[in-house]
Specification:
It is built from one helix and nine strands; from the N terminus they run αβββββββββ. With 121 residues, it is mainly β. The strands form two sheets. A six-stranded antiparallel beta barrel has the order 1-4-6-9-8-7.
């Protein structure tokens, strides 16, 4: 019997929405200019990914190690149809955070059930 990851994904979405809300992750665009050879580099627009997100949870003191997780870092559960990446930004409660790590819970066939995002101001 195979496990139904589509059902697991739907259950995760309902659970995240129960405690959280819809949200956005943004990859900030770049201002154009010139490259090292004098060629024109065009502006790139922001890329916005919509999904569902839980409220912020601070890492416990015993979880901080001073390098990959520092005091003040938070985490959230996130789910969307598009993968997110390190250095994208999330705004929650009028505060903007940068994604420092992404841990996906996914099947061997790469069905992403949900992701845990480590956030830093």
């Amino acid at each position: 019997m195979t496990y139904n990851y589509t059902t697991a994904r739907a259950t995760a979405r309902r659970s995240i929405l129960k405690y959280g809300s819809t949200g956005e992750v943004v990859q900030k665009g770049q201002t154009g200019g010139y490259d090292d050879n004098g060629g024109v580099v065009a502006d790139t627009a922001d890329v916005t990914i919509t999904g569902v997100i839980t409220p912020l949870v601070l890492f416990a003191d015993e979880e901080t190690n001073g390098t990959s997780i520092i005091k003040g870092d938070s985490w959230v559960y996130w789910q969307s149809d598009t993968a997110v990446a390190v250095d994208m930004q999330v705004t929650l409660n009028s505060e903007t955070f940068k994604i420092k790590a992404v841990t996906a819970v996914q099947s061997i066939a790469n069905v992403i059930i949900y992701e845990r995002l480590q956030l830093r101001k």
